[in-house]
Structure formats: C-alpha cells, structure tokens
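Both lines are retained for reference:
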Amino acid sequence: MDYFYIATKSQNPWVKYRPLAVGDLASTSFPNPFFNYFLSSNIPPIPVNVNGHLTDYTRMEWLYGLKTGSLTTKCSVQDIAAVGQELAMHFCKYTRELIWEAVRVEYYPKKPSRQKCLWVSQGEESLHYWISQLGLGDNQTVFRVELDGVIHEASDEHLMNDDIPYDIALEKAHKYWSGEIVDPLKKEILFEGNMRILEHIL
C-alpha cells in the first residue's frame, strides 16, 4: 500500500523548514516541527490592564493571579477553563514526549525518535482516518511519498494524554515502542530517514 504524508498549508512560527513540493527529498532531523513547538515559546501571553497599562502575563501567571485574587477578569468560567486546559495539555504532552524518548533511548534505540521523525499513514483507509483526526480542513496538503529509512508502527491509544502516575506512563510507553496495536485503524507510523514527495493528491 502507498504511504501518505499530511502537511499544513500555512507555516506555524516554530516550523523551520519551507513547505514541501512534489519532487522534494525531505530528510528527518532534530528537532522536527512537532517537538520544536515545545522548545520554542509559542503560547501567546495574555494582556492584562494594570493601572491603565497593558502588561503581558504568561498563562500560569494569569491563572495564579485569578486564584489568589490579585487579578480580576471579565472572562467567563468557560474561557478561564479553556486557558487552564490548554496549558495543562501543553505540559502533559511535553512531559509525555520526554518520558517516551527516555524509554526509547534506553530500551528501543533502533526505533525512530518522536523528536526527529515524520508521521506517515499507509493505505487510503488509514489516510482518511488521520485526516479526520487531525481536523485541518482546508489547511491541509496530502502527498503520496516514497520512504527510505526506519519505520515504526505504533498505536496512539498508548500515548499519555492525561495526568497519570509515572509507572503507568512507563507501561504505556513500553506498549507504544513495542508496537502493541489494539485497533489497526488507529495505527500511526513513525518514519526516520529520507522521504521523496511523489505526488500531490489533495
């Protein structure tokens, strides 16, 4: 079955590479755009009116100010919860990536690193699943690609997306890196090496 790569049309500020085009040969390198997001300061601050002057607060400072009563806001409970949930998920995913890489390096060193790899899908059914999961809408480009390198098939069901004890996180990481797949449709493919862009299909 063919391999496909889903890219965004617009470049996020933390992406260091130019958009891909048919005929390109892309090589994986550290950090990939996904992990570089965590290495860069990309969470926008919240402007707060302090004595008539706008002052930028980090989200943690803003939430702490609301908690202690040193700040007030006209934001709704839902807006405040959205800021808190977004910040919590940021650090949850960052922690996950550090744990998963530590487990990979020690126990599965020949597997592609999530900090360097590209994610691809195989077959049209898998492609349509990931298109729906990513939810990029009109901001997506899909290429048919040719791979030359190392591949690892894993299930995103084993990724940490909530606050869990460290020993359970390690257990999930081992299941991920050992390639334990429960639902084949939810399989994600990590690739490290050279990727040739063969065709623009969407």
